[in-house]
């Protein structure tokens, strides 16, 4: 395909991405240097790095940062290990597999805010699990500032695990049967099989799922918003904190909000750049 | 294959059942809540069975008429579903499936017309129609430009292709907040200009939409669609590219030898082979648009879609009851359950496709 035809095919998509991704990102950086209030959008005022020093000295920012890191550090590994385990089980199921799969996929496919709402209902007053807690421990259960972080983490594992499961399951389907049988003839037990045959085969997928999970966990918004609302601001993650600062009714500070957004972008890129660089090298290698 | 003993098979299924319960317990609980009377919901000890059922919550959320019999509504929905299933099954089996699929979609639309709150454009209850419009438009735009770009990126070997792909991959990783705030600001600026220059209140002879008297961006479905198309592009082009890479170049080269132009070869030869890819990518685009919360809340404060409507209508200060919130949650989830059941293979394939090549 020559260059002209290529651009003919690609130009609509590239224009959309330039106009609605590259340009807004530049705007974000520019707005981050402005003093700009939500109720007075017409008078931006250049303030240099004031927004950034404002953010970096804001204890709420650091609280959000800490919880986001804890969230990523717990949710990503747990969902990946669980996902791999369930995928291995699913791979052994003969009859009824698609039924199990449909049920297990539901939390991941359902609207995230609705998934969070229905999960939260289990723990609210009169909910099934809060009642169960009360029966077992004899203490009344209520969602409070102390346990809401854990509830968010548990619900997020419930929500994200199917993604790892289904991706690993797809990977297991491409595992050459001979290698599994060869390992079985050699008398390899399950753990040796897992370590020497299955995990090496899934290596690329594990990296892929890990990266996607880190990206998605880092920018988590919907679940945290539903669980905390304006009640438990201690348990806000970076994205929720960011939107709250920028769009709070009447006191929204769009300039500061954009400064936070820029910091968030820098944060995720520190993790991502080695991977992007590697993908770029792969792409170039593919072409020569 | 190693024959597994009965005992280990039972163990396996038992484990799977525990996992299934962990997955769907919240949905079962919410469904129960949605068909209970308020007194059972408020009971201190959960009423797990033997309670009296009612469809009042659904009636309150979806219908204006108070005296309508909910059994007749259920029968109505079932009839529509069966008719659509039959049309779809016929469509899958005959050579020209288009008329059948179109008929099925048409039946759904005509059927929706019966629900008063669907087409009522009185700002408060237009969230279902908004959801449908946003989802359909996002899918159409996103898939058509993504399909073209995916094809170009799969076939072109220049460096600029690699650059576009990597930049798109980077954008896929960015937090939504980095986009939603400038979108909001930009839309506001454009609206101000439309207002002050008077362009917004021009009478355009051809685009005279009912219910729209002034042109604006913020708080319109257009704003949501544009935002969703943009953030969905990276995913779409990567997905389509990986599917196009599986189609051998020789196929379109043969068609072009026979005198077809590249565009003709693309349309007549390649696209018909791409239906599984289009369905898989379309499903994920659909879910993205249908499920979106943040963009809608910030960019369209009054043009709600379903997720925003549910969170806003069932929030703490609203007078809606728990049962109504549950009914709303069940209603928004049902179409997704149907999608999983009908398109499970495509969903799994789609999730695997982007992944297997890494």
CATH class of the domain at 120-313 in chain B: Mainly Alpha
Element-by-element helix/strand order of chain B: HHHHHHHHHHHHHHHH
Indicate the CATH architecture of the domain at 120-313 in chain B: Orthogonal Bundle
Number of strands of chain A: 2
CATH structural fold name of the domain at 120-313 in chain B: MetI-like fold
Shape of chain B: globular
Shape of chain A: flat
**Helix-strand makeup class of chain A:** mainly alpha
The CATH homologous superfamily of chain A corresponds to MetI-like
Q: Let me know the average pLDDT of chain A.
A: 89
Oligomer: heterodimer
Strand content of chain A: under 5%
Biggest sheet of chain B, open or closed, and with what strands and sense? none
Low-confidence stretches of chain A: none
Helix fraction of chain B by DSSP (H/I, runs of at least 4): over 70%
* CATH architecture term of chain A: Orthogonal Bundle
Largest interface: A-B, 102 and 107 residues
Share of β-strand residues of chain B: under 5%
Into how many domains do the coordinates of chain A divide? 1
As a whole number of angstroms, the C-alpha radius of gyration of chain A is 23 Å
CATH class categorisation of chain A: Mainly Alpha
Task: Looking at this protein, list some descriptive labels.
heterodimer; A: 288 residues; mainly alpha; MetI-like fold; 13 helices; 2 strands; 76% helix; B: 358 residues; 16 helices; globular
